[in-house]
């Protein structure tokens, strides 16, 4: 069965986040990287005569690939911010590590599609398209899955073993909009507005906000 097995492992508050994905999918806004008129872009603070092969090389993912999966979900990025040579190249990577039972929560990338390759372990993944259709799949090492640009999606390690994946993005800066954090975390949207939007009560909204509040 290609479902996320949510029935046995999510509370009513967590189920609200699934409904949130269905509600937000039609509202996804997308963009893309602009075309450039040169082979590559040199940072304004760098003298072109100092550019060597090292500028086009990045070793920042070595540690993430070697790291044993932590208890919770972690991500190591190689985007334009970490690897300036990607500016204008419309590509970037991320190494995703999942401890048993951990999840990369519902989110979108407004500027890129995402191609996920499972390196180790297994994941249950899914996305919701702009018509509200839900697509899920169980993946094992060597499998790939594409998340279309701007769609609400997630990855869940429902097993007892760690998992690791590599994501490729069609943008040097794919962007990230975490639905739980954006709506119930730092945005300070009024509780009544959220309660009415999701047809629930203020107490449920406050419980969700409390769970996403930064730990002291």
TrEMBL record:
<keyword id="KW-0479">Metal-binding</keyword>
<dbReference type="InterPro" id="IPR014710">
    <property type="entry name" value="RmlC-like_jellyroll"/>
</dbReference>
<dbReference type="Pfam" id="PF00190">
    <property type="entry name" value="Cupin_1"/>
</dbReference>
<keyword id="KW-0325">Glycoprotein</keyword>
<feature type="binding site">
    <location>
        <position position="104"/>
    </location>
    <ligand>
        <name>oxalate</name>
    </ligand>
</feature>
<feature type="binding site">
    <location>
        <position position="114"/>
    </location>
    <ligand>
        <name>Mn(2+)</name>
    </ligand>
</feature>
<feature type="domain" description="Cupin type-1">
    <location>
        <begin position="59"/>
        <end position="206"/>
    </location>
</feature>
<comment type="function">
    <text>May play a role in plant defense. Probably has no oxalate oxidase activity even if the active site is conserved.</text>
</comment>
<feature type="binding site">
    <location>
        <position position="153"/>
    </location>
    <ligand>
        <name>Mn(2+)</name>
    </ligand>
</feature>
<feature type="binding site">
    <location>
        <position position="107"/>
    </location>
    <ligand>
        <name>Mn(2+)</name>
    </ligand>
</feature>
<dbReference type="InterPro" id="IPR011051">
    <property type="entry name" value="RmlC_Cupin_sf"/>
</dbReference>
<feature type="signal peptide">
    <location>
        <begin position="1"/>
        <end position="31"/>
    </location>
</feature>
<keyword id="KW-0464">Manganese</keyword>
<keyword id="KW-0732">Signal</keyword>
<dbReference type="GO" id="GO:0048046">
    <property type="term" value="C:apoplast"/>
</dbReference>
<feature type="binding site">
    <location>
        <position position="109"/>
    </location>
    <ligand>
        <name>oxalate</name>
    </ligand>
</feature>
<keyword id="KW-0052">Apoplast</keyword>
<feature type="binding site">
    <location>
        <position position="109"/>
    </location>
    <ligand>
        <name>Mn(2+)</name>
    </ligand>
</feature>
<feature type="binding site">
    <location>
        <position position="114"/>
    </location>
    <ligand>
        <name>oxalate</name>
    </ligand>
</feature>
<comment type="similarity">
    <text>Belongs to the germin family.</text>
</comment>
<dbReference type="InterPro" id="IPR006045">
    <property type="entry name" value="Cupin_1"/>
</dbReference>
<protein>
    <recommendedName>
        <fullName>Germin-like protein</fullName>
    </recommendedName>
</protein>
<dbReference type="GO" id="GO:0030145">
    <property type="term" value="F:manganese ion binding"/>
</dbReference>
<dbReference type="InterPro" id="IPR001929">
    <property type="entry name" value="Germin"/>
</dbReference>
<keyword id="KW-0964">Secreted</keyword>
<comment type="subunit">
    <text>Oligomer (believed to be a pentamer but probably hexamer).</text>
</comment>
């Amino acid at each position: 069965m290609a479902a996320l097995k949510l029935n046995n492992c999510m509370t009513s508050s967590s189920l609200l986040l699934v409904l949130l994905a269905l509600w937000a999918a039609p509202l996804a806004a997308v963009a893309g990287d602009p075309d450039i008129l040169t082979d590559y872009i040199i940072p304004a603070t760098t003298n072109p005569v100092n550019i060597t092969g090292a500028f086009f090389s990045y070793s920042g993912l070595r540690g993430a690939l070697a790291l044993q999966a932590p208890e919770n979900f972690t991500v190591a990025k190689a985007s334009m911010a970490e690897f300036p040579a990607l500016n204008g190249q419309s590509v970037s990577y991320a190494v995703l590590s999942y401890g048993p039972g951990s999840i990369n929560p519902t989110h979108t990338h407004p500027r890129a599609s995402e191609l996920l390759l499972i390196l180790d372990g297994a994941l249950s993944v899914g996305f919701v398209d702009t018509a509200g259709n839900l697509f899920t799949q169980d993946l094992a090492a060597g499998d790939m899955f594409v998340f279309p640009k701007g769609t609400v999606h997630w990855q869940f390690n429902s097993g007892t073993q760690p998992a690791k994946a590599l994501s490729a993005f069609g943008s040097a800066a794919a962007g990230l909009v975490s639905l739980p954090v954006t709506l119930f975390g730092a945005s300070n949207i009024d509780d009544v507005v959220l309660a009415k939007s999701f047809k629930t009560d203020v107490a449920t909204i406050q419980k969700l906000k409390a769970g996403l509040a930064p730990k002291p």
